[in-house]
Amino acid sequence: MQLLQDATIPRALPQACARSLLAGVHVLMGFIRQEMRHNRRAGLSVPHFRALIFLSHAGDASVSAMAEHLGLSLPAASRLADTLVRRGLISRQSQVGDRRRVLLSLTARGRAVIEAAQAATEKALAARFEAVPRRELNHMLMAMQALDRVFSAANGQSKR
Q1: CATH topology of domain 31-154
Q2: I need a labelling partner for 10 at 20 to 30 A (CA). Which of 68, 88, 118, 134 fits?
Q3: Does the pTM of the predicted model rise above 0.90?
Q4: What burial letters (b/e) apply to 3-12, b meaning 16+ CB within 10 Å?
């Protein structure tokens, strides 16, 4: 038996959700980018910072994967990686059996830089949410959890 509430949901609802998400993500990502950049360590360029964020999510990644994600040529990504290695923010490790394949990963220092910027950004987001009524916050939280489940499943990650 279908609940009356579910029966009254228009068929266009998925399309409306998609449209609203695309519009909202642009504004939200702008805020997050601004905060993350504002809270990055002095002397760290935006491409360097973006590389650290990529590696924080990707774990060990090849120079090619980082180049593709950042929209850089392979030589430019390699130079960027060299700089981050020299600064002690990432490590570069050759693969056993294929010395040409190199994996990049964050060092403890690199992870600390990202975690500090993320904590400051999370604090700024939470400050924005302070004015939102609790009921609305609960709806937002449920929506974010649903998005996480939907897109984690689409990317082959399991979420409950």
Answers
A1: Arc Repressor Mutant, subunit A (1.10.10)
A2: 134
A3: no
A4: eeeeeeeeee
